[in-house]
Amino acid sequence: MAKNNDVVMSVRNLSKIFKSGILNPEYTVAAKDVSFDIEKGKIISLIGESGSGKTTVGKLILKLINVSEGEIIYKGKNISEITDKAETKKYYRRVQGIFQDPFATFNPLYRVDRVFDMIFDSFDLGFKDKDKAIRDALYDVNLNPDRTLGKFPHQLSGGQLQRLLIARALLMDVDVLIADELISMLDASTRIGVLNLLVESCKKHGMAVIFITHDLNLGYYISDKSLIMYKGRLVERGDTKKIYENATHPYTQMLFEAVPEIGDRWDPEEEFLPEQVVNDVQKFYKENEGKGFVEIEEDHGVLFSDK
Ligand SMILES: Nc1ncnc2c1ncn2[C@@H]1O[C@H](COP(=O)(O)OP(=O)(O)OP(=O)(O)O)[C@@H](O)[C@H]1O
Ligand SMILES: [Mg+2]
């Protein structure tokens, strides 16, 4: 894990167990023993199949759900201990999330400017000229303020609304932005624009981003660090390039094999069986029983066994 002073947040042995039902409660282990550091100005991809626990980790960081076990340390403090209103507000001043569907974030009855009014009303952002600050932030995300402000959400595209939300995060000068499937609803050309913008903003403003995605290629394109999740466990963690060059956990290896290459045609003979992955992972854990999570090289760790 990172040793430098640039760590803004540390996630330590984080677990979340959901309980549903009252008479016959069912327990879902959505995340188990997840540890990683978030560094200033760095993009971390959180990659894994549907149901692997990615959004759960994002929600825990955003304090939208309670931690079952473990800690999230921000500025030396366990965020579970942040309970009073003023302190919670202070936390959200610096830690924000953008979710998959930008339309859901905007109230269709109000002009989009409202998302800016809300943050200026809630927080002292330290700008002398509010209107200029908003216009500058919009230019930063390649939106023309004259064509954006005053519009209703339905008059803008999904990509424009997401850029508006990135502009808002920039205005707030957040430390950590959780981007959950941020661009999955955008077309390919808009995607690259939004991604590049995110990377630039990180470098320029020192904002750290957790970029949650299913897409391995996007993860590689955008991130400095990667976290691979499988069934609630963090199975591989570290420098993106190292993981991609030396994928070691069987689930990570399967992810790479499953990426179709341009020019490849679909082969009806080729079988992909999820049970195969489950078996491979179990075999791998059994062969390595007792090893646990091991740093196999600098800034590259692998879960060799779950016991
Ligand atoms: N509120 C909840 N109550 C009970 N179980 C939940 C709840 N939220 C999530 N889960 C379960 O926790 C597991 C992890 O869910 P999570 O939403 O974190 O997955 P994900 O990796 O974000 O998946 P996707 O890629 O589909 O968004 C799933 O098995 C899910 O059914
Ligand atoms: Mg999710």
> What is the string of SSEs from the N terminus onward?
EEEHEEHEHHHHHEHEHEEHHHEE
- Give me the number of helical elements: 12
SS-derived structural category: alpha/beta
Main sheet strand line-up: 6-7-8-3-9-10-12-11
The CATH topology label is Rossmann fold
What small-molecule ligands were found? Answer: adenosine-5'-triphosphate, magnesium ion
Helix content: 25-40%
Strand content range: 25-35%
Poorly predicted spans: none
State mean pLDDT (0 to 100 scale): 90
What distance separates the N and C termini? 21 Å
The best one-word shape is globular
Biggest beta-sheet profile: 8 strands, mixed
**CATH architecture call:** 3-Layer(aba) Sandwich
- Structurally, how many domains make up the residues? 1
Tell me how many strands there are. 12
List the helices and strands and how they pair.
Elements: E1 7-20, E2 26-39, E3 43-48, H1 54-61, E4 69-74, E5 77-78, H2 85-94, E6 95-98, H3 102-105, H4 114-122, H5 130-140, H6 145-148, H7 158-172, E7 176-180, H8 188-205, E8 208-213, H9 216-222, E9 225-230, E10 233-239, H10 240-245, H11 250-257, H12 274-287, E11 293-297, E12 300-303
Parallel strand pairs: 3-8, 3-9, 6-7, 7-8
Antiparallel strand pairs: 1-2, 1-4, 4-5, 9-10, 10-12, 11-12
This protein binds adenosine-5'-triphosphate (ATP) and magnesium ion.
